[in-house]
């Protein structure tokens, strides 16, 4: 089914796309963007209600839409999702690793949450999807890193920043390892992005001073939207980025320019 005319300047008709962490925020917008552009899409996350709502929104674009509950800290659950999704979609062309454990804090639990979900889930999903990607003419992997990977983490964010830096580094190593198989690997690094129920939406309500402080450091004068981050992910997965691999694309309205 060809994509509907409208706001998505890409055509992913015939593509099979998996989005880990695809039920809300940036992941949801990435999944919906691919569906609107004609791709068959499978998403996973832990919350069944949000998964089903997003699946219905994807299916409204007349594409195959699949959703499965999955704890992305569980290696067996990841393998089960990838296997089932590949069966439903008929293969895999694009894998998007978007989930985060939001490891903020000083304790071991923060470090372990980030390590298991932000980093190891990406490693494990890539490993599970590889046999399918090897059979694709459009194979690529897109990871969601963060601008936190590029500067020291403050206020309990050291674990989050360190794990995202590791993910960006993994992107380069994985890209080199898979280049000979014509599988591209890139990452996006979003800046502060606001959406209902997200971290910055909560911060605006609970800590308006902190919200304003961060806003003042964004040269564009506003927080980003999930759709803007999704557009960058779709670009990296598209033929327009066909000779781009091993890169982390910053999408932040100039926020990183302030350090």
CATH homologous superfamily (4th level) name: NAD(P)-binding Rossmann-like Domain
**Which H/E pattern describes the elements?**
EHEHEHEHEHEHHHE
Based on CA atoms alone, the radius of gyration comes out at: 17 Å
Q: And the CATH topology?
A: Rossmann fold
Structure description:
This protein is α/β, with parallel strands linked by helices. The protein has a single domain (16-194, 225-254), classed as Rossmann fold, CATH 3.40.50. It is 44% helix and 14% strand. The protein contains 8 helices and 7 strands, in the order E-H-E-H-E-H-E-H-E-H-E-H-H-H-E. The protein has helices at residues 25-36, 48-59, 75-89, 108-133, 158-179, 199-206, 208-215, 226-237, and strands spanning 16-20, 40-45, 65-69, 94-97, 140-144, 184-190, 248-251. Strands 3-2-1-4-5-6-7 form a 7-stranded parallel β-sheet, with helices on both faces. Helix 1 (25-36) links the parallel strand 1 (16-20) and strand 2 (40-45). Helix 1 (25-36) runs parallel beside helix 2 (48-59). The protein is globular, with a radius of gyration of 17 Å. Mean pLDDT is 93; it is low at 1-6.
Spell out the key features of this protein.
disordered N terminus; 44% helix; Rossmann fold; 8 helices; alpha/beta; 7 strands; 259 residues; globular
Task: Give a nutshell description of this structure.
The protein has helices spanning 25-36, 48-59, 75-89, 108-133, 158-179, 199-206, 208-215, 226-237; strands spanning 16-20, 40-45, 65-69, 94-97, 140-144, 184-190, 248-251. By secondary structure, it is an alpha/beta fold.
């Amino acid at each position: 089914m060809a994509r509907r005319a409208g706001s998505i300047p890409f055509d992913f008709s015939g593509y099979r796309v998996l989005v880990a962490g695809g039920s809300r925020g940036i992941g949801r917008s990435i999944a919906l963007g691919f569906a609107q552009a004609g791709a068959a899409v499978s998403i996973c996350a832990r919350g069944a209600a949000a998964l089903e709502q997003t699946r219905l929104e994807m299916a409204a674009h007349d594409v195959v839409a699949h959703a499965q509950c999955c704890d992305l800290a569980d290696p067996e659950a990841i393998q089960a999702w990838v296997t089932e999704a590949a069966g439903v979609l008929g293969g895999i062309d694009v894998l998007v690793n978007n989930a985060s454990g939001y490891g903020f804090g000083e304790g071991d639990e923060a470090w372990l949450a980030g390590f298991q979900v932000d980093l190891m889930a990406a490693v494990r999903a890539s490993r599970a999807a590889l046999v399918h990607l090897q059979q694709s003419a459009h194979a690529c992997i897109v990871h969601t890193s963060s601008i936190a990977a590029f500067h020291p983490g403050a206020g309990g964010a050291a674990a989050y920043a360190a794990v995202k830096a590791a993910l960006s580094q993994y992107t380069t190593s994985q890209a080199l390892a898979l280049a000979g198989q014509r599988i591209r690997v890139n990452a996006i690094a979003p800046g502060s992005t606001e959406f209902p129920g997200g971290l910055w939406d909560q911060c605006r309500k609970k800590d308006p001073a902190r919200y304003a402080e961060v806003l003042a450091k964004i040269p564009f004068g506003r927080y980003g939207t999930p759709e803007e981050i999704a557009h960058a992910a779709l670009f990296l997965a598209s033929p327009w980025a066909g000779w781009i691999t091993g890169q982390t694309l910053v999408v932040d309205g100039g926020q990183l320019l302030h350090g």
